[in-house]
Amino acid sequence: MQTTGSDLTSVAAGEEAAFTVLVDGRSISARAGQTVAAVLGAAGIRVFRRTAHRSEPRGLFCGIGICYECLVTVNGVPNVRACVTAVAPGMSVETGAAKRHGDGS
Amino acid sequence: MATEAELAIIGAGPAGIAAALTAATAGVQVVLVDAQPRPGGQYFRQAPGAAAAEALPVRQLGASPVCVMTDTLVWGVFPAAAGTGWELMLSGPQAPSRLWARVLILATGAYDRPIPFPGWTLPGVMTAGGVQAFLKGQGRLPGRRFLLSGTGPLQVAVAANLVQAGAEVVAVLEAARLDWRAARHVAALWGQWPRLAEGLRYWRALRAARVSLRTGWSVIAARGRGQVEEAVICRLDDAGRPIADSAETVAVDTIAIGYGLIPSTEVSRLLGCVHELRMDRGGYVPRRDAEMRTSLPGVYAVGDGAGIGGAELAQIEGRIAGLAAARELGHLSAAEAGARIRREQPGLARQQRFAAMLAALFAPRPGLYGLADDDTIICRCEEVTLGALRRAVAEGAADVNEVKGLTRAGMGYCQGRICGELIGRIIAATLSRADDMAALRAAGCFTARPPLHPLPMATLIALAEEVGD
Predict the structure, then answer these.
(1) What is the pLDDT of residue B195?
(2) CATH classification at residue B342
(3) Residue B269 dihedral angles phi and psi, to the nearest 5°
(4) Confidence class for position A100, pLDDT limits 50, 70, 90
(5) Which of A5, B124, B278, B314 is surrounded by the most beta carbons within 10 Å?
(6) Which of A47, A48, A62 to probe the B interface (max B CBs under 10 A)?
């Protein structure tokens, strides 16, 4: 998916990467306590999915689990909210899927 | 698995924690449920690994006998089948499937009020609270070059935090006009010294960073290929409508919007508590008595989820409801609970005055609801445009639930949390004016239905097996 060209800035200096997660097949460093949205942001990804009808790009909006705009696929499970889901070692995240009804696992 | 409590509290923000600590200290067995991984709500949110810096109430909660269930969604609340009390339906990795409680305190909080404009669905447009949560909770910036647009003190705080974290903040646009008419509210500032000092600190930080602060301005459009690249900003007239020849374009990658807060009332609406439209409290809120009791016996509502008032008011309301619940459950005498509730009254009145002042100063003016055009998406989940909503109203849909039936607006994953209030405004604006109280009352609010959040089918199947039908 689209990127901003370079990583978005981390505020805290000297963070150690604790583990890696796969984002669209790419290895991205992450640490405990981060959300999927923060890891995608660090990887320069702003477009998390495209919509079902108009195929419009969507990303992080409310940031607190209310709006369901930031849905991604995590370990094969579709429609997971990136903003409230914590990353875990070995996690696989896919962006880009259209949100569809009846896709819940 | 199921479990029981004397008192269940939904929401572990300032109001819920205050209610839990007060009731538990009186001897009540309390379960406090929250959707986030850690207690604190939006207000006491901390970056991961910052446990040493936890706010005092969060630390007190950790040292208390309160059972805290984090990572737990409440997706339904029903009257208990046997006898009195309530049955909460839960979902979460470690959560029991059900929780029975004799008394219920709703402390569900609030979320940002968005105002739709062309381009507001582009990645890079976020809510101010979302930017704040990302910054505070993750210690990262969700963009590089920011524009803030909205109304109320939150965005000044967010802008100051962004500047402090090294972000470039191009401008903070306050849609309200803070002119001489605001002077009549000055008495409500008496006694709010910590807040005034905090505000002054933010203002100085923004001045020092040469951030442009403009009152009576708003973003009116976002543009970009696939994500935000620029924002169109504009001065507003007295009715909140853009003054066309004042429009400017600014290059930004992130636009934070927040036009006040909307109370999260899904649970109280699902329960059938009587609600009333109170613009001074953020919209539809449950009707309450002086002890925070809703129209339903054994159900209390406190904090921003019962009417926007901020963290200080939320904590006072939480303590009052905690005391009333402890008395109702037989852990406090009527005399002691009454005396302690009376002692909260001066603080309660002071915070209510302050909340009323903010609501009056920063109420979004009706013209702001006219920024969207017919092709602008209003229901982001179901991709329903303003044009489609207007057609539904023209075809005779008279309230938000009829519009929902005709257009699917509000039927998506967020269940109308984002578009619900907007659709009420659109109906009112189409039939009369966006700020016509009678029209807004007639437009009503969405019926809340379980599940209150989308659930995996596996959760429902497991529940059906557990219940045995």
Answers:
(1) 83
(2) 3.50.50.60
(3) -70, -40
(4) low
(5) B314
(6) A62
